[in-house]
## 1
Amino acid sequence: MSKDKKHKSIHKLFPVIKVLFSTAGKKYPWFFVFEALKTLVQVAQPFVGILVTPLIIDELITTRNVKTLISYVAILVVGEFVLIIFSSRLDTVLNKYQERMNNYFTMQLGLHSMSLDFQLTEDKDALDQLEKARTGMTWYSGGAYGIAEQIFMFLGNVLKITGLVTIITMHAPLLLIVILVYIVLNGFTTAKRNKYELQAYNRLSGINRLFGYFGWRIVDFRYGKDIRLYGAREMMVNRWKKNTDESIANWKWQADKVYPCALLFELFFLLRTLITYFYSGLLVIRRVFSIGIFTQMISAAGALDATLGGLVWNIQELLKRCNYAYEYVLFMEYPEALPKGKEMIDNKDYKIEFRNVSFAYPGTDKKVLDGVNITIEPGEHLSIVGLNGAGKTTFIKLLCRLYDPTEGEILLDGRNIKEYDYKEYMAQFAPVFQDFKLFGFKISENITIKENDGKDLKDLVKLTNLEEFVEKLEKGLDTRIFKIFEEDGVEPSGGEQQKIAIARALYKNAPVVILDEPTAALDPMAEYEIYRQFHTLVGDKTAFYISHRLSSCRFCDRIAVFSEGKIEEYGNHNELVNKPNGIYAKMFEAQAQYYR
Ligand code: ADP
């Protein structure tokens, strides 16, 4: 790892800890209590032996009092036993938290994705970030649980080291220097070893890719014809062999380079052990301490260098995990795409106005809407027509503030829509988009978007012509849509799905209703029926209709004809149909042929 990268990892550590711990802390405070307890138990475990064994040895050598001996042994055995039981009990409890916490964080990701500004759902960077956050919070980092474990392990290691250093300092402080030198020397050999391993690994990934190509891709039958007809088999086998030789050579290179490091590592360990025994032994001979303390020094020194090694691994692991989990923090703090206002909408009888609105989708230059001017009076029913790609749906997306105009402004009740509270603004619209989605919930829940017994939906079902469909179902409105959750879920036809989506829009009872070609899956007669009824249903609400079938435009007060991002014609059906050479007149004539 380069210095720069390490630096960056450290910078990620604190934001990750802050976000993960505050999120998990609110939901699962007891997890932290249990983790702390487990850490204390784990720290205590080795100390029972280190502290009590010397007492037993010294007692055996000196006074040999049976009662005292029994009590020491009892402390040793019972102490270790209690700690082991406690530790395994805590492990069971903590395992349950692991599952729960992982699910909870996955849910947070889902909730955040649903509340992101819509345009980010089509933004490559935001989508990438979501993917990175998702993978970053799984086994790469172990999630909040895995990171918390590493942090508690770190704290535990620090506590353990403090205890061991204290014990050694009390009797043989010089030993600390020996251990320190040993750790530094080991650091060098390990770093060298890691360097060689990384070099070999980097080379191996190239070799492996080729190996994969020769080994797997060419056995794919699709290559069969060319291999046979051009006699490529021999060439392939030779390449494969060459590649295998390279791979073996690389392993050999790594083994040769790593071997001296491994040897040095063992040598340092031997020296460290030798010096520890020699020095502690000398202190026993000089009667500085007892044989009991001698064993204590030996085991404390061993435990100390193991713990120091553990601490180094622990820090590396923590930084690595935080590096991955940081993607989650980035996603959760992903900047908003749209500025949000605070104004509320009190007057529900408002006018909507597009003033010189132009729009290009983020990351593109093409003006999909170009200088659109239109005013929709309260209660007006506007029909929007035009060829595919004319910008009709985009117009609706801007109206619903899924995107903001690149130029110009949209006003509601005389105020720029950016000034309104976003939720409040969203509550004004009940759209049925072309690509509307139903959820794998009950039919009634799909309409009301809350848990519902469907009792208050009878009239709506009738109005939207869903009656026949619902009556056929054994569970009626309680039937689940799709078979995701239940075997007996229903797969409604395209037309039935649209009716459910329309019922959902009507149930929302918002001041503005939008139908974006929702009837594409219906036959012309059924569509005619829906539009006719819809006008009655929508009543004096403001309504926008996009349709390819101009027969439905007759019901609207005004028609706006979109062409290449501009409103080319505007008026009522009679005005437009009689316009010489008009786009609408031509479209109407072309369609009328089919119905005559
Ligand atoms: P209509 O509803 O009239 O068929 P749209 O408003 O859906 O037309 O599309 C207008 C233009 O904008 C089309 O050229 C379409 O390809 C483009 N467009 C639509 N959605 C996106 C998007 N998310 N990103 C980029 N371009 C888009």
## 2
Amino acid sequence: MSEKMHKRTYIDGVWVEGGSGRLLECENPATGEVIATVTQSSVEDVEAAIAAAKKSFYQTRDWRDMDSQTRGDILLHLADILERDRDELARLDTLENGKPLREAEGDVDDGIHCFRYYAGLIKVPYGGVYDVNAGFGTMHSYEVREPVGVCAQITPWNYPFLMAVWKLAPALAAGNSVVFKPSSNAVLSTIKLFEDFEEAGIPAGAANLVIGPGSTVGVRMAASSDVDMVTFTGSTATGQSIMRAAAGNVKKVGLELGGKSPNVIFADADLEGAVEWAMIGIFFNQGEVCSAGSRIIVEESIHDAFVARLAERARAMTVGNPLDNPDMGPLVSRQQMERVLAYVEKGLVEGAKLVCGGHRMTEGDLAHGYFVEPTIFDACTSDMTIVREEIFGPVVTVQTFRTEAEALELANDTPYGLAGAVFTSDVTRALRVIKEIRAGITWVNCYNPTFNEAPWGGYKMSGIGRELGVHGLEEYQEVKQVNINLTPGVVGWYEH
Ligand code: NAD
């Protein structure tokens, strides 16, 4: 796929020019260059895509009614095609998002595994079977899982390929028909993914792609009464407006939202290990990670040693063109860079102590890109904006505690509840603290590892529902109970 081509909207198995008359310029954030232009979908395109998905699900029914063995086999074939295209997909994410190439390759590998996982899971029968007596006589009762119907899916830009796969793989495996919209900041790997859908033999109308702004295209997807379910990954504010839009026809809603996750480090932790994981926790993917360990909460007695070592490691990080595999690439856009730098300013004004970083990097080859130094703020307090709000960049705050109770109070002092970690060599303390952290994804003595098999999602304002694992498939399924009367005739009214 040549990056300079005009790309198109995919409706009912046909690639069409987006009808909005507006072009989206895809920018490489490492250089500021436009690497592709894409025609944006109109609201009419959205309606057509929804109509195609509706026809696919309720009339044609070829994907929905396909036996799970065959549907799973198509997804396995897709995974093989994606494996063939792995380098191209990874390169597209790096060029558009700015993440180091090896991280993009890891995302694509995870996504391929995700399709294989759900291709297998859909073939596994599960659900309860009960023999009950409900007062009417003996009943045989069982559960049936069915696809929800037409699913609208909307994703952010920080893991363009992987966030698409986390939604598309379970929804398609379950037999739904989908209309998908990526973030305008990163569309190219999704377009390639849909080209591969076509090659794999996913029938027309079962998977449709629209491209364009949330304010027009996304809003229409969330509000349409022909959509049975909307799933969204992005900021909490957008999630709230999607939830309101979904109320019109009480469509099912799945939300994966923002975070401000605590990384709690006790004095008995392995210091060197805790520093390395804390680095991964905040600087992986330039800190543009919903689950980033953006609030370090460290025991007072090791605070000085910990911060000194963390700063030493942060200053030594390489930042550069992500195709060259530095430790960090640029932020995704000028707008995101300016947003992050504005938070740095706010941190300084509100009295946090800047230990390292805090500036845009413009030397040499970085001149036209959106590079920001790895940044550490110390002496932070819970009322500071940089501690309360999601920055979504390479900026971490440090707070200190003396007691376990104080650590937990700081950790949970947030409206978010996506993730959290604890570092300690005391296993009972680790389990006690994890039990008390109000978050959906937690780690002990590590930060960030995630598996397709394990459920992903947030407590509190970080979301509703779960992706990945068995839960991720169940999100895209309705459950029906079927009750069969085994007692001949009418037993009578309730006997109890
Ligand atoms: P965003 O909310 O600005 O946009 C996300 C998507 O929603 C984009 O495709 C956008 O076009 C669309 N959109 C915007 N307004 C809309 C509206 N009113 N109706 C429908 N769609 C609309 O988020 P972003 O800046 O792209 O991504 C960063 C955010 O995503 C962060 O808050 C991050 O924490 C979150 N995120 C969460 C997870 C998770 O798993 N919980 C994963 C990745 C990112």
## 3
Amino acid sequence: MRFDVITLFPEMLRVLTDCGITRRAHEGGLWQLATWNPREFTSDAHRTVDDRPFGGGPGMVMLAEPLAQAVEAAQAAQRAAGVQRPRVLAFAASGLPLTDAKVRRWAGEGGGAVLVCGRYEGIDQRFLDEYVDEEVSIGDFVLSGGEVAALALIDAVVRHLPGALKEPSAADESFADGLLDAPQYTRPEVWRGRSVPEVLLSGHHAQIAAWRRRQALVRTAQRRPELLQTARASGRIGPAEESWLDAAAASGEVKK
Ligand code: SAM
């Protein structure tokens, strides 16, 4: 899979190719990264990429033209690499939420994506209307720029590319089955007086699986009840699991 990132700060993307799972997957040829700086697509002496907003207001807005030329250069590079129609995504706090379902879909489809990182107060809407397939938000907060969002998206997609993970843990992780992950423990068995739950030391696989499932259900009910409702609506919670949740509510572990 190929990512072309349009950014005023290309050096911020380096962590992906320098560290961890994404570095290994990059070295293994599972994905490629190129960056394009809109300043390289300006024609004035100051290499201007922003201007004041029409209608007034604080801050600056990114100019459409340098971004358009950068995206066209990125699309041409994608085509040269064999990707005919890369998806063009722009990061925006006002965009549609990035979800596990989208990440898995994009990883499954492969191909390529052009990611546009905003800065300042954002991007001229006419560029977004002309070039962008979807505006993407990584959460209900405002970042200084889209680069951190690009890191999050690429990291999340790359770990789903076949061969990126040494063990196929992505299938058990949070959101994979609509629930949050169960708590994890490692050595020592007792740390500062806190013991690992006994069942995890039992070697009894069925009991461990049941314990993890109950923990995932209870944790999801406690922290993200809306996810539990969606899992219920899609028939992913059985009667025995409902009775665990009823018992957790009766004991006060989960609020009704
Ligand atoms: N004026 C914008 C607003 O209120 O929505 C905020 C602009 S922000 C300072 C600059 C850039 O950071 C945005 O153009 C976008 O690319 C990126 N950004 C900020 N928050 C983001 C978020 N939650 N998700 C994705 N990108 C974000």
## 4
Amino acid sequence: MDDRIQVWVGDITTLKVDAIVNAANRELAGGGGVDGAIHRAAGVQQLQAACRRIGGCATGQAVMTPAFNLGARAIIHTVGPVWQGGDQDEANLLRSCYSEAMTLAVREGFRTIAFPAISCGVYGYPKAQAVAVAVDEVERCLESYLMFKRVVFACFDQSMADLYRACLQNQAT
Ligand code: APR
């Protein structure tokens, strides 16, 4: 396991990292889940205005806004796939969320980033499968991005953290 990867349980909005990743929708319209929490903590009006200026984001892509009232320097919004049974390219689209967010972060000179479990809530992606994609893609990116110092998988609950830890341990053996 790459020792730059951390699994952490708590509210992602409290993390002081360069970039916090948001599990957004294609309209960047805000919503519930982690998207709602990030909007509330960053400042709803300011973040909505910044998202409106961007206009939207395709599934698997990533865009960036300021973080406003958050301790982070920026919010990277990415749009995970809605789970439709697994034969609609969901795994590649989810993989792309992680690589596009990391690439954008590196381009900005960021060294630390926190990801929520993209698509694992409202979008219904089976959690263990999503975790396997997330871990594999982040480890792959870290092999090229040697300047990166820390990637945090921010989990809302312990059961999600257990899935990440099991997956990271499996990769290490
Ligand atoms: N910090 C960390 N993780 C959180 C937080 C938080 N404050 N709030 C929720 N989560 C976790 C959920 O428990 C879940 O594991 O984030 C994960 C992603 O769940 P969702 O937020 O539902 O994201 P997703 O499945 O990608 O659905 C995106 O939901 O809120 C809307 O606008 C959003 O339409 C979009 C859709």
